[in-house]
């Protein structure tokens, strides 16, 4: 089977002379990275497929490529104009793939590697948000080794006394709610810790906030960062992996059922989080709006999902924007010279 790189070379070699005008007039080549080896591989593939289809509809030349041993030779041979990493989980969001793209001098969509690492580590990101004056639930961060060193039960008892119930247990790194549990009873905490440690060596334990669960996506535009309408999430048993990606498991309201003042507040919080964490091109902030009107930031995502059920596409549609044109505008912004 002919590889995408070979096909591109063959096409270039058969082009009529002179080649320069053809090259100048050609549509930009976009490589969408999708797949990878994380727990969220399937979500990444679905996101990549949908974004690629949308970009092609705007006239762009788009190739979808996995993250594998062929990637760097492919990028070297095809020399794409821009890469869009639609990778979820480790390597896709921890900055490592973005570091490689920078070393290869390939422009790409999204936040740079250093800021990505800050966001990928939830406790570090929460510290940065607190420093910026944003609210986030009280939390502690505990490695699995500590439970072995100090004894599991004394540590669990201390967690309940300090953090209180209900609380949320989640891996410090990762997404799609994998390894996340909401704990309302002390006797359920050991199981939640076991499930969390199945996805990472360190747990983030934070106070559960009662309120409206929202997601606010932010897009960089000509006038700076702009929030799309908030999406309200109503999941009876919690917004877990199934609730995110299985149709019918969750009810979404886009735009969210908020007053004008509330909508303005959560949009401002998301934009402030985007700026405080030095994010670029696009992001999504997940938060809880409590009964007093305070928006508590749960986490921020540098690679929002783009599946048929994902929150950023829902927000874009609610804003009246054409998805394909929005994605094209993101690519066009990534093609601008760095300032």
Automatic annotation (TrEMBL):
Its EC number is 6.3.2.4. Residues 126-332 form the ATP-grasp domain. Mg(2+) 2 binds at residues 299, 301. Pfam families: Dala_Dala_lig_C, Dala_Dala_lig_N. Keywords: ATP-binding, Cell shape, Cell wall biogenesis/degradation, Cytoplasm, Ligase, Magnesium, Manganese, Metal-binding, Nucleotide-binding, Peptidoglycan synthesis. The active site is at 40, 176, 310. Its cofactor is Mg(2+); Mn(2+). It is found in: Cytoplasm. Pathway: Cell wall biogenesis; peptidoglycan biosynthesis. HAMAP family: Dala_Dala_lig (MF_00047). This is D-alanine--D-alanine ligase. It comes from Promicromonospora thailandica.
């Amino acid at each position: 089977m002919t590889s995408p790189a070979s096909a591109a070379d063959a096409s270039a070699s058969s082009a009529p002379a002179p080649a320069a005008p053809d090259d100048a007039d050609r549509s930009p080549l976009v490589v969408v990275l999708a797949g990878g080896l994380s727990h969220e591989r399937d979500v990444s593939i679905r996101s990549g497929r949908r974004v690629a289809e949308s970009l092609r509809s705007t006239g762009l030349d788009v190739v979808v490529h996995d993250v594998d041993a062929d990637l760097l030779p492919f990028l070297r041979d095809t020399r794409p104009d821009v890469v869009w990493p639609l990778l979820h989980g480790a390597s896709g969001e921890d900055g490592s793939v973005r570091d490689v793209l920078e070393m290869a001098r390939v422009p790409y969509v999204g936040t740079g590697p250093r800021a990505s690492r800050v966001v990928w580590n939830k406790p570090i990101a929460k510290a940065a948000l607190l420093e910026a004056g944003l609210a986030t639930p009280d939390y502690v961060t505990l490695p699995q080794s500590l439970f072995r060193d100090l004894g599991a039960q004394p540590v669990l008892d201390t967690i309940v006394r300090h953090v209180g119930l209900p609380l949320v247990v989640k891996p410090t790194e990762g997404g799609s709610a994998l390894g996340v549990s909401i704990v309302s009873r002390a006797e359920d905490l050991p199981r939640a810790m076991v499930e969390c440690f199945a996805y990472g060596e360190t747990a983030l334990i934070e106070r559960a906030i009662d309120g409206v669960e929202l997601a606010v996506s932010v897009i960089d535009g000509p006038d700076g960062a702009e929030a799309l309408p908030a999406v309200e999430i109503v999941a009876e048993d919690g917004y877990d992996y199934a609730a995110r990606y299985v149709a019918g498991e969750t009810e979404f309201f886009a735009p969210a059922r908020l007053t004008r003042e509330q909508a303005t507040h959560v949009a401002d919080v998301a934009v402030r989080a985007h700026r405080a964490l030095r994010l670029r091109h696009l992001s999504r902030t997940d938060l809880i709006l409590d009964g007093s009107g305070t928006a508590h930031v749960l986490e921020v995502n540098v690679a929002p999902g783009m599946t048929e059920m994902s929150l950023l596409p829902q927000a874009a549609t609610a804003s009246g924007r054409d998805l394909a044109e929005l994605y094209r505008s993101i690519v066009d912004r990534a093609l601008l010279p760095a300032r």
